Amino acid sequence: MNKVLLKLYVTGQTPKSERAIANMRRICEQELEEQYELVIIDVLERPQLAEDEKILATPTLTRVLPLPLRRIIGDLSETDKVLLGLDIQPYTATPTKQGGNK
User: Fold this and answer.
1) Which of 51, 52, 71, 83 has the CA that lies 20 to 30 A from 43?
2) What range defines the domain where residue 55 resides?
3) pLDDT per residue over 60-98, tens digit each?
4) Structurally, how many domains does the chain consist of?
5) Which residues, other chains included, contact 55 with Cβ-Cβ below 8 Å and sequence gap of 6+?
């Protein structure tokens, strides 16, 4: 199982940035369990990184690994759209219980 490497670019401690960070942490913990690394980059503190990656808007989430690179812009509030946009399959350690008794 390969880990997913994600980078979240934010601008300072704004409500939108804080919401994006909280949403992405929740998604990672619930859907990817321990199969991820999330790096948060404040473009005010590290503008060169944002310029090198051609980040034009924040918050922007990039899936660096596995390739190909994927990006999502926004506060990441809709889990299904985030997972779909990043082409990430949720990690499930145990299969969900299916009702067999009718």
Assistant:
1) 83
2) 4-86
3) 999 999 889 999 998 899 988 998 888 876 555 444 444
4) 1
5) 9, 43
How far out from the chain centre does Cα 1 lie?
18
In the chain, the amino acid numbered 43 is V
Dist CA 37 CA 102 (whole Å): 42
- Is the separation of the CB atoms in 32 and 4 below 8 Å? yes
Report the CATH number that the domain containing residue 42 is assigned in CATH.
Answer: 3.40.30.10
Structural domain includes residue 68: yes
**In sequence order, which residues have a C-beta less than 8 Å from that of residue 59 and are 6 or more positions away?**
8, 9, 10, 11, 16, 17, 20, 21, 73, 74, 75, 76
The H or E element that residue 27 is part of is: helix 15-27
| 62 belongs to a structural domain | yes
Answer whether residue 22 is part of any domain: yes
Strands (E), 1-102: 4-10, 36-42, 60-65, 70-73
Global pTM exceeds 0.85: no
Report if residue 79 sits inside a domain.
yes
